[in-house]
Design goal:
The complex is a heterodimer of chains A (294) and B (437). With 294 residues, chain A is mostly helical. Chain A has helices at 11-49, 66-72, 75-109, 113-119, 126-136, 143-147, 158-182, 187-195, 200-211, 213-227, 232-237, 249-258, 263-289, and strands at residues 52-53, 61-62. Chain A is 71% helix and 1% strand. In chain A, α3 (75-109) runs antiparallel to α10. The chains are: A mainly alpha (294), B alpha/beta (437).
């Protein structure tokens, strides 16, 4: 029986499809291979190792859920988790607000030069920026001398001082993302609103915000994921001190693996970090399924 | 054209043959200044390469050496010469079969008769020696000698003299002891080491390290209580202390903003550098005072900064071992390093005075001679970074901050110390402590 071209059951269609898939793999293959080698395999290994007692040198010994039990009963882990939650709350609010305001002002002013200016700190290496901020905060040679307080040495200010430095380097990225999203909103809406007597606040509240809501939600979800992965900012400035007041899950994991020789426990912490990140992703998909515009 | 290709082919063959005859020995070193790296190349590597023209020794500086080295060695790779942060780390690798035994080479070279047995015993695993200490260090006081002479201050030998001195310095508006842990968080343990040894006494520390005594014994708790009070009174305020690095606090002593450093041998690499000591004031060194009548004066708290071993995966273990032994038998090179890289190359061998350049800091020479003399006389204590397992070590320097901030009491600190130590002792992770003389 002759089958028509375009018929999915026809031989010609199947051959075309196989060719398309082959071409697809040729394009995607290299990146996929790299991802499998440096992301998937280490991720699976980490989850697997979290069920073992391993010092990183001798053969691992299977111990089931002991590592998870140990970390959840450990004050160090709970303290680090608390710090990560605080960090997440700070980054879900302040830089996002700054990015939105910055993007809206850029839309109105049409001065694109400022976008490059705001974005510039994002491209600087974190190690370099962290060291510079440590010097800025220095109690003898820096601002600390005039403020009368060693911000990075004080247990109640150290975490926020590091977060402030991170926000300085980060908000420009959010500004750029939101500004980019705003370009997708029809200018006619703003014109029509103006003609109807809308104020600048009304434009922002009723046109800009709803127009870029999917982008805002997406960046909030990514912020949650990234907030649980923060390591370099703290490691360069305080290494979790003073007295554990800036300890985050990632720095605790690092110390467990390389200083305490408890790679199994470190893997358990890493697994939990991934779980928290996945929870954020699940929230995103839940909202999507509920029909919320994300 | 044909002749050209034949010549190129012959050249390639010659280079390949030459390359195969050349043996390359690699050595990963911790972060170091270019000047100090060049000093090691000049004083240790080049003399060896001159007498062994078929060997190229390559020193590579690695940031985060501890982490990078472990990943490489466990993967069966890594450098030929393995430099670790101390016997605790080296012994772990040895137990896992990752290091090459050095007994035969040590015996052949006569180093077994020269290196004090304490330093060979601590690198023994299952009866074989796998590491040799690269540098012997000890804690003490480096002070502004000019400032002391100007004010008529004397070096303290007892607890009472120590307190009187610190109070007198404080009255002048000068910080008695300046320090900071911004660059190296474990700096805290340097002072814990000093107070444990100079209050509780080396005998008690030895007993605790060998499991004969509990770390939660009142004598250790009182040592920490004393240290907590002294830290609050005589060290910089904690929030400032955690932000200071050597480039901040060493100049403070030179410029009389502070009077003393309670510091290890490595401090000499800074005081001799005008960038760290930007004044004409002289510096002096002295042992830390005894903090209890029952503890003798003077004693030095001995530590091993780093150890050297040979990687089991080395393609040329014999040559690597030969070079490693040569480091310790090259007395001329070691002598020169006392000037070119002071404080980091006090190898546990006898360096003849004629090998040491005349312009080496005499205070530094006095320090290493005193250190060696006290060690030989058995008047030494134990540093925490050399003789503790990794988790006890970590609690030692992290937990003390909670004591300073009154988050936990000295009792709670030493109780947890004891718990972690007992666990590691049972697991066989604590480095072996040879019997005291």
């Amino acid at each position: 029986m002759n089958k028509e071209v375009g018929d999915p059951t026809s031989l010609g269609f199947k051959v075309q499809r196989r060719k398309k898939v082959k071409n697809l793999f040729l394009f995607v293959g290299p990146a996929l291979l790299i991802n499998v080698l440096i992301v998937l395999i280490p991720s699976i290994s980490t989850v697997a190792l979290s069920f073992f007692k391993w010092d990183g040198i001798n053969p691992p010994i299977f111990i089931g859920f002991q590592n998870f039990k140990h970390i959840f009963l450990s004050m160090d882990f709970l303290q680090a988790l608390t710090h990560n939650v605080i960090w997440t709350i700070v980054f879900l609010t302040i830089p996002v607000a700054m990015g939105l305001i910055g993007a809206e002002l850029l839309r109105r002013s049409k001065q694109k030069f400022f976008l490059a200016f705001y974005f510039f700190p994002t491209i600087l290496p974190i190690v370099v920026v962290g060291i510079i901020w440590s010097k800025i905060y220095h109690p003898i040679h820096g601002l600390g001398k005039y403020l009368g307080i060693a911000l990075l040495g004080n247990t109640s200010t150290a975490l926020y001082a590091i977060a402030f430095a991170n926000i300085w380097a980060w908000w420009g990225f959010l500004c750029a993302v939101f500004y980019s999203a705003i370009q997708g909103i029809s200018k006619d809406l703003y014109e029509a609103a103006k003609l109807d007597g809308a104020t600048k606040w009304h434009e922002f509240r009723y046109i800009t915000l709803p127009g870029i809501l999917p982008t805002i939600v997406f960046m909030e979800i990514m912020t949650i994921i990234w907030s649980f992965q923060v390591f370099d900012w703290v490691w360069v400035t305080t290494q979790g001190g003073p007295a554990g007041s800036t300890e985050l899950l990632a720095t605790l994991m690092y110390k467990k693996a390389f200083y305490s020789y408890r790679v199994g426990e470190a893997s358990a912490i890493g697994t939990m970090m991934a779980v928290f990140g996945m929870l954020a992703t699940l929230i995103y998909y839940y909202l999507k399924r509920k029909g919320v515009e994300v | 054209m044909r002749k050209f290709f034949i010549m190129m082919a012959m050249l390639l063959i010659l280079v390949t043959i030459y390359a195969q005859d050349q043996i390359k020995i690699t050595w990963w070193y911790e972060e170091v200044t270019p000047e100090h790296l060049n000093a090691m190349i000049k004083d240790l590597v080049e003399p060896y390469e001159k007498t062994h023209p078929n060997v190229d020794v390559e020193i590579t500086v690695k940031t985060q050496l501890l982490e990078v080295l472990r990943a490489a060695i466990v993967a069966g790779k890594g450098p030929d010469i393995v430099m670790t942060m101390g016997p605790a780390e080296a012994n772990r690798y040895a137990k896992a079969g990752l290091l090459f035994p050095l007994d035969e080479y040590i015996r052949k070279s006569g180093l077994d008769k020269e290196i004090p047995s304490l330093f060979l015993e601590i690198g023994k695993v299952y009866g074989k020696i796998y590491s040799i200490p690269k540098t012997i260090e000890s804690m003490g006081i480096i002070y502004n000698k000019t400032l002391f002479e100007k004010n008529g201050w004397k070096i303290p030998k007892t607890r009472e003299e120590w307190v009187a001195l610190c109070e007198a310095i404080k009255k002048k508006g000068i910080i008695p002891v300046v320090a900071g842990n911004a660059n190296w968080r474990p700096t805290n343990e340097h002072f814990v080491t000093v107070y444990l040894n100079h209050y509780a006494g080396p005998e008690n520390v030895y007993k605790a390290l060998t499991g004969q005594m509990s770390w939660s014994d009142p004598v250790f708790v009182k040592a920490i209580e004393m240290f907590k009070n002294d830290f609050k009174k005589y060290w910089p305020e904690f929030s400032v202390y955690t932000t200071l690095a050597p480039e901040d606090f060493v100049p403070m002593v030179a410029t009389r903003q502070a009077a003393m450093l309670v510091i290890g041998t490595w401090g000499f690499q800074w005081v001799g550098d005008p960038a760290y000591w930007p004044s004409d004031d002289e510096w002096g060194w002295a042992p830390f005072p005894s903090l209890r009548d029952e503890v003798p004066y003077p004693i030095v708290d001995i530590g091993i900064g780093t150890t050297l071993s040979v990687n089991k995966s080395s393609k040329n273990p014999d040559v690597a071992a030969d070079f490693l032994i040569n480091i310790f038998t090259n007395k001329e090179g070691l002598g020169k390093l006392q000037k070119d890289f002071p404080g980091e190359w006090i190898a546990p061998v006898n360096i003849p005075s004629e090998a040491i350049p005349k312009d080496v800091d005499p205070v530094f020479v006095e320090h290493i001679q005193t250190q060696y003399k006290l060690l030989k006389e058995g008047k030494y204590g134990y540093t925490t970074w050399t003789f503790l397992g990794p988790e006890t070590w970590q609690w030692c320097y992290e937990g003390i901050e909670k004591v300073w901030l009154d988050e936990i009491t000295p009792e709670e600190y030493m109780k947890k110390w004891d718990e972690i130590f007992k666990k590691e002792f049972k697991e066989g992770i604590v480095p072996p402590v040879p019997p005291r003389k």
